[in-house]
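Researcher: I'd like a structural prediction for the single chain below. Treat it as a standalone chain; there are no partners to consider.
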Amino acid sequence: MRERLARFSKERSLGAMATSISHEINQPLIAIQNYAQAVRRRFQNNIDDKKKLIELFEKIEAQAERAGAITQRVRSLVGTSDVRLLPVSLHPLVEEVIRMMEPETEHRGCRITCQSAGDFPAVLADSLQIQLVLVNLLQNSMRSICSNERYGKQVFVNMDSINDRDVQVSVTDQGHGVPLDRVADIFEPLYSSTSGSMGMGLAISQATIEAHGGRLWYEPNPAGGAIFRFTLRRSGA
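Model: Treating it as a single chain, here is the predicted structure.
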């Protein structure tokens, strides 16, 4: 019986992971579809705007590369637990994630604002893994604020150098937050949100940050909503 329960738990975890991964890959595919539809409309309207068409094709190419990078990284994560830590400039990485998510933010009527104080030190990180963590946290925030009409649909990403060794990244929203009786469960692999969706996004994100030598945690936003914070090691610290 114990073996059957263990096998069942593993199968559910694998299924949840597959759902989470397919969701991540689906985002750039949706973006590709949106950009392709925009190109088609321009051709149908016979608009001679080569610069805009080139820009749309470049966005399609970038999102296709993003989808490919996600699948490639998933293969490597399955094959090895190693994390490739290299010096990374964090501010451009965050800005790139925000640009990649533009189709979704436009669709949801949301805005993501990046805030940092002055020159920011490089961190030791696997760029793609940190991008996936940010995408997961930002998508959670956008879903939350879209279900809460009391406040503006805005998400803030703050970066702070908290000491000589660590940098802290915070994702803040004014959505519905996390119920007090569920806070202890949100990083569990099969945590079910209030919307009924099941996934491993936060569990994978927490494991990813811990593999980087940092930590990921939740705090209630005093103004209402949620704050998710994670730390990364400074390069050279």
